[in-house]
Amino acid sequence: MVGMEWTRRGVAEFIGTFALVFIGATASVYNDQVIAALAYGLVIAVFVSAFAGISGGHFNPAVTMGFFVTRRISGPMAVFYWVVQLGAAVLAALLLRWILPSQVKAVHYGAPTVNSVIDDGKAVTIEAICTFFLVIVVFATAVAAGGAFEKIAGLAIGFTIAFGVMMAGPLTGGALNPARAFGPEVASWYWKNAWVYYVGPLAGGALAAILYEVLYLSRREDGEEEPEEIGAAEDEAATDASA
């Protein structure tokens, strides 16, 4: 059933994105950059491993953008993912606003900020590059035929986020994910430099996906299987059931 499949994917994306913001934003408030980066990476490593077989384990509008521009997810499904991801991020941040002490409002419930030592142009470049690395790893491990998904994809993706946040955190807050920025921004109504956390990750994610698609996935060796599109498993299951 189409409706049930959308529900299954939506719930998976909601849980993973909610966990990322709920854990990651709190870790960024109360810990140094290394601990916060490890928290982000561990959350993603765990939930990609748990839900990649259901929704693809995006938990990030920039990753969904990469799948959309390479036609691995339909337009309506991409919009659905974005709504779910942003909604989960807002709910997580609002829950943190209720749970955490009122003093945490001074740091905007973990909303990322641009360090005054750099300008917005440099900040958006950092966010784009680190998200580029993330989406390249997603495509290399979890999308490419013969990729290492079953063995290391969740861990590789989590580690990529961790080292990205370690680098970008002191300069931009290391969002690498529009949802990660959007939730705390709504909860604190703090929008300074907000565009950096949407333009940078979405552009970096789209570029990485297109580059990997053109250089590797569209030039497969003869006999190599076509990378499975999101939703293909459902279609195959339906075909088998009707046989």
Task: Describe what this molecule looks like in 3D.
- With 243 residues, the chain is mostly helical.
- The chain has one domain (2-224): Glycerol uptake facilitator protein (Up-down Bundle), CATH 1.20.1080.
- The longest helix has 29 residues, at 2-30.
- 72% of the residues lie in helices and 0% in strands.
- The model is unreliable at 221-243 (pLDDT under 50).
Oligomer: single chain
What is the straight-line distance between the termini? 17 Å
Order of helices and strands: HHHHHHHHH
Task: Give the number of domains.
Answer: 1
CATH class: Mainly Alpha
The CATH fourth-level homologous superfamily: Glycerol uptake facilitator protein
Q: Just name the CATH architecture.
A: Up-down Bundle
Defining traits:
mainly alpha; 243 residues; 9 helices; globular; single chain; Glycerol uptake facilitator protein; disordered C terminus
Fold topology:
Layout (H helix, E strand, L loop, with lengths): L1 H29 L2 H23 L5 H9 L5 H25 L20 H24 L5 H24 L5 H11 L7 H20 L16 H11 L1
Give a nutshell description of this structure:
This protein is an all-alpha fold and 243 residues long.
